[in-house]
């Protein structure tokens, strides 16, 4: 079922966190191409415990330009998802300009891997990847009505068995905890909001070909046997968890899932833990009815 007026999400207003680059930017552009106006939010600053550069203000500006080039309206704001008061103001400002809010895509996330990182890496990762999602959704809830859709980005990591984190450091443990707790949160929130016809779902990607994956800190974790591993070195083992032969999926693969869940095509889909993982779940989990 296609939205009236052309485009799968025509007439909808979509909030996306982490919109400056990577998956968030790809989703913002794709949903705009399908008829949505976009409220694009991002921190656009580094976090001390994260061992790779985060998005910049210029990158958020570029996302806004690319969305505007589709002919849709866009509001782009720098917001820290760890601060709910900031999010409330941003959502209110976006709704005032764009007129409504129909879809929330809680995409913002970090990964901080390395045994040498301080224990604050655990706290920072949980604050962004779990608390940031909760803050985003709760700031948006007063503006959502029947037919709205809430989509959170989880991770295949949440759905795989726990493992030792000594070598990967506190940030790795924080990532696992945050994404697992997020999956539970989505399940419970979907149950609460279903009678109001507000849908709540999670998308769980495996490795995605974005700056969060393609950086030196990740390469070192995948190739600890090398002093200065390259992208080519790491990509040789990225796919070890996948039965399908690929080192990673593309941002477009996640966007396809998000677009489906944002559109009325999924109007009766809620509480879904949708895996886009090249089969990574299958290698370590038995069938569960």
From TrEMBL:
<keyword id="KW-0560">Oxidoreductase</keyword>
<dbReference type="InterPro" id="IPR002347">
    <property type="entry name" value="SDR_fam"/>
</dbReference>
<dbReference type="InterPro" id="IPR023985">
    <property type="entry name" value="SDR_subfam_1"/>
</dbReference>
<dbReference type="InterPro" id="IPR036291">
    <property type="entry name" value="NAD(P)-bd_dom_sf"/>
</dbReference>
<protein>
    <submittedName>
        <fullName>Mycofactocin-coupled SDR family oxidoreductase</fullName>
    </submittedName>
</protein>
<dbReference type="Pfam" id="PF13561">
    <property type="entry name" value="adh_short_C2"/>
</dbReference>
<keyword id="KW-0520">NAD</keyword>
<comment type="similarity">
    <text>Belongs to the short-chain dehydrogenases/reductases (SDR) family.</text>
</comment>
